[in-house]
Amino acid sequence: MKTKILILLLLILFNTTISALTFNITLLNDGIDHNPGDGICEVSVGSDQCTLRAAVMEANALGGLQTIELGPFVYELTLLGEDDTAIAGDLDVTFGDISINGSGFDTVINGNGNNRLFEVFNGRSLKLSNLTLTGGRAATASHNGGGAIQIINTGTQLFTDHVIITNNSANTGGGLFASHGTDINIYNTTFIDNDTEDLGFTNIWGPAIYCVGCEMFITKSIFTSNDMGGNAIEITGNGYLAMTNSTMTDNQGGGIRTSNGSAKIRFSTFVSGSGPNFSHYSFDDTHVVDIGSSILQTLEDNFLNNCIGGDKPISSGYNIVSDSSCEFSAVGDSEMTDALLADITDNGGPTETYLPDVSSPAIDWVPVNLCISAQNNALKLDQRGKFRPDGEFCDSGAVELNLDVIFRDHFEFTE
Questions:
Q1: Which of 50, 169, 199, 284 is the 20 to 30 Å CA partner of 205?
Q2: What integer is the mean pLDDT of 323-351?
Q3: Is 380 strand, coil or helix?
Q4: Which residues contact 101 (CB under 8 A, 6 or more apart)?
Q5: What sign has the CA pseudo-torsion 370, 320, 217, 259?
Q6: Helices then strands (H, E): number in the chain?
Q7: CB of 225 closer than 8 Å to CB of 250
Q8: What are phi and psi of 46, to 5 degrees?
Q9: What is the pLDDT of residue 285?
Q10: Global pTM?
Q11: What pLDDT, on the 0 to 100 scale, is given for residue 406?
Q12: Peptide bond just before 389 cis, omega within 30 deg
């Protein structure tokens, strides 16, 4: 009996080891795996040459959690076609839960405008960290959602951390398309210069993200210069967004549009010179956009409103708003007020941010007991990863201005 138990334990240990592997990519060009499921990533027998596509195929065949490690290089997807096995076209995540780790933003996965980069479905998960996604395109009649990533089917999950998603295109969701029941977690991520393409027979929405019925959590991220197809993020079909410590700026159609979708925004900064920061439509009056401790700014002389649509967002207070279009009147709201932001730049952290001027009305504006994220957690950091609060109160918006105590009352000692 003891011998049988020992053999059983060894078999369990062996199977666990096989099902949790790490694949190190050695080839930059595209190519399929020779024998998916044998635990060896190689494009031909005995070559020890592993491509990104081959590693994804191997991970799918093995199932379970698999890890792929990429160096600081450009990995190109060049095998054309459309299927759901990762043999051609995009990289399909079908049966494995795959984690792909780069070595920084100079790790690049490039679709060269030929294919979408990733499609995740069947309740699986994809985690991406420390890399750049670019050149993805999904703009054909049968392949039109999510230029960089499409995530579908209930229970399917996506995680991004320290990722740049740039220069991708699709009919809907230039950067990301997420469907009903999917779970999206976006951290320290930049969506920049993504767009939508008009195919002539469907709507073009969401140059950065199109979410239909998804649940999405965005933290310490930025959306900038995403063009065409309306607001950068489109939420519809009972979708939900919780956003904290994030920035939306310079998107051609504006910031966030909710059409029978809901959102909760905390400690974020919205600056637009070409479209509304919020467009909210709840056709049965059950969907709510709740904004608190945030900055909403439209640029001067552009005659823009921060808020448009058939419905208005509600305020949880302590918002600094450049006009009265949102009709905020909760405690701490300050409408028709310039937040006095410096130009957007690298102020530390993985994304660019707007730093408030030392005389900004956003500074020390939010009582510390209300320094709460959109997920109802105590907020200890800003978008850059700097401590909140700096003083007795938190600053409204995505960034906490870390003043030395001697400057807190705008008094400077000089010798």
A1: 284
A2: 97
A3: coil
A4: 67, 68, 69, 70, 129, 130, 131
A5: positive
A6: 2, 32
A7: yes
A8: 75, 5
A9: 85
A10: 0.92
A11: 35
A12: yes
The amino acid that residue 231 corresponds to is: N
Pairing status of strand 22-24 against strand 91-93: unpaired
- Domains in the chain (CATH in brackets) are 21-362 (2.160.20)
- Say what the pLDDT of residue 96 is: 87
Tokens linked to 264: 């909760």
Cβ-Cβ contacts under 8 Å for 144 (sequence gap 6 or more): 138, 170, 171, 172, 199, 202
Take residue 95 and report the two structure tokens written for it. 């049966």
From the list 79, 143, 71, 81, the residue with the least C-alpha distance to 101 is 71
- 314-318 contacts: CB < 8 A, separation 24 or more? 314/288, 314/289, 314/290, 315/290, 315/291, 316/266, 316/290, 316/291, 316/292, 317/292, 317/293, 317/370, 318/292, 318/293, 318/365, 318/366, 318/370, 318/396
Pair of tokens at residue 46:
């005995």
Does the pLDDT value for residue 5 go beyond 80? Answer: no
Query: Could you give the CA distance from residue 300 to residue 266 in angstroms, rounded to a whole number?
Result: 24
| Positive or negative: CA dihedral 284, 287, 291, 292 | positive
**Residue 276, pLDDT above cutoff 60:** yes
Of the candidate ranges 153-162, 188-197, 401-410, the one whose mean pLDDT is the lowest: 401-410
65: tokens are 């959690």
Cα 388 to Cα 345, 385, 392, distances in angstroms: 20, 9, 10
Q: Report the pLDDT averaged over residues 315-339.
A: 97
Give the residue among 234, 263, 217, 244 at the shortest CA–CA distance from 388: 244
pLDDT class for 132, splitting at 50, 70, 90? very high
What's the chain's length in residues? 415
The two structure tokens encoding residue 61: 């065949």
Which residues, 6+ apart, have CB-to-CB distance to 184 below 8 Å? 151, 157, 158, 176, 178, 211, 214, 215, 216, 217
Do the Cβ atoms of 133 and 126 come closer than 8 Å?
no
pLDDT at 143: 84
First to last CA, the chain: 85
Encoded amino acid at 314, one letter? I
**Interior CA angle at 303 toward 298 and 309, to 5°?**
75
Whether 363 and 325 have beta carbons less than 8 Å apart is answered as no
pLDDT band, residue 407 (cuts 50/70/90): very low
